[in-house]
Design goal:
Helix content is about 75%, strand content about 5%. It has helices at about 25-35, 45-50, 60-75, 80-90, 95-110, 115-120, 125-140, 140-190, 195-200, 210-240, 245-255, 260-280, 285-295, 300-315, 320-325, 330-345, 345-404, and strands spanning about 5-10, 15-20, 40-45. The protein has a three-stranded antiparallel β-sheet with strand order 2-1-3, with helices on one face. The protein is extended. The model is unreliable at about 50-55 (pLDDT under 50).
Length: about 400
């Protein structure tokens, strides 16, 4: 049973503070009334704990999806809302999610609408989830909206997991390669320095590769820390610039122009937009609100601008597909399907199918890209190590020829 801290006024007119245990805020107020106290302020003692949410970690999309699916199952089987939340609270394995569900339970018990209670935790539940739940409450299909949102979050988490998993091995190769090269330059190359000095004293010139290797090594030893600090500073500065609208626009434009990677990023953004918009429309969210949320969820400013112009067209009674096609970002075949879906009034179903198709194609392209990156990185590592070894051994051969 949760505790509530209160400030109340006695019949004598003096203010007192304390703590009372109750199942909800309403019960806490009733308990204070039985004690002949007039409540001035009653708050859940755990609200302070929720304010420290950044110390409790992020709630993953997969965990949120599982929670929403369980809530939908409980409600469909006739379990009352408050009892359903109590079941979820007992099953919650993460402290932060347990606190959030408890707070939602208490808010609903105090008379708040369930969508308002969810919206109070917009740091856990994204805008799409809150909007779909709100539409479900207004349209009396809450269970269905919860299930569709859970399915959407699961698909997004699965797609994100594929991308992260595909990039693990190339990242490990990159780190290992950099480490090997640095170790060779810092610890192995200096062992040959006396030999190189002896050659120069005898008037035997070093090869160009050896001179360049020694230059790189000396540069790292003298200015390596300064270079690393400068790179960190530039990265922080660029990150700050990316927070601005113009910086984000430049970055998104550059990302789309990257060979191989650009089309994959574009496909992922288009698939995300189609799935978000289709999910919202399926759950009865008005199209203008759905376009606003869908534009924010694309992750690309250029595509978001095209969606915003589409929303302006729709608000004036025109078609959605025209400004999207004029932007030239969404592939023509996708635009053709969207245009046909608008005419046949099946936009929400077609958008979800488009998202499924694009995500399958994106997964295949991503797999091909990773398979291409791995041998390229291995070749680069082998080339760097070969360059160092040749630069060190070539003077040995030169010395042997000179003495011979």
């Amino acid at each position: 049973m949760p505790d509530f801290v209160y400030t109340a006024r006695t019949s004598a007119g003096t203010d007192v503070t304390g703590k009372v245990s109750a199942n909800s805020k309403r019960e806490a107020i009733d308990a204070l009334g039985h004690l002949s106290l007039f409540p001035i302020r009653v708050e859940d003692a755990r609200r302070g704990e929720i304010s420290l949410k950044f110390l409790q970690g992020r709630v993953s999309d997969s965990l949120i999806a599982a929670t929403l699916a369980q809530l939908a199952d409980l409600l469909e089987n006739g379990v009352p809302v408050l009892d359903s939340f109590q079941v979820l609270i007992k099953q919650a394995t993460q402290a932060r999610l347990r606190d959030v569900l408890t707070d939602i339970h208490d808010r609903v018990a105090d008379g708040e609408a369930i969508d308002v209670a969810f919206a109070a935790h917009d740091d856990v539940f994204n805008e799409l989830t809150i909007s779909v739940i709100r539409a479900g409450v207004e349209g009396a299909f809450l269970e269905d909206s919860l299930r569709r949102t859970a399915r959407f979050l699961e698909q997004q988490a699965e797609m994100r997991g594929k991308i992260v998993g595909a990039m693990i091995y190339p990242s490990i190769l990159f780190v290992v390669g950099i480490t090997v090269v640095v170790v060779l330059l810092v610890f192995f190359v200096p062992q040959f320095t006396p030999f190189f000095e002896q050659m120069e004293s005898r008037g035997i010139p070093l090869s160009l590769s050896t001179v360049s290797l020694l230059f790189i090594r000396d540069f790292l030893m003298r200015f390596g820390l300064y270079t690393f600090g400068a790179l960190v500073f530039i990265a922080i500065w660029l990150q700050g610039q990316m927070a601005t609208k113009w910086g984000r626009r430049i970055l998104d434009r550059l990302k789309l122009r990257l060979p191989i990677v650009g089309p994959i990023l574009l496909s992922a953004a288009v698939a995300r937009f189609c799935r978000v918009l289709g999910t919202l429309l399926e759950n009865g969210v008005p199209i203008l609100r759905a376009l606003e949320i869908g534009g924010h969820s694309t992750g690309n400013v250029l595509l978001a601008d095209a969606v915003r112009r589409s929303a302006e067209n729709v608000s004036s009674g025109e078609l959605l597909s025209k400004p999207l096609a004029e932007a030239g970002i969404i592939p023509p075949q996708v635009m053709a399907m969207i245009a046909v879906a608008e005419e046949s009034n099946t936009l929400e179903n077609v958008l979800v199918n488009i998202a499924d198709t694009i995500e399958r194609n994106t997964a295949r392209k991503l797999d091909m890209m990773v398979r291409l990156i791995e041998p390229v990185m291995l070749l680069i590592m082998a080339g760097a190590v070969f360059y160092i070894i040749v630069s060190l051994l070539l003077p040995v051969f030169q010395m042997g020829q000179a003495t011979g």
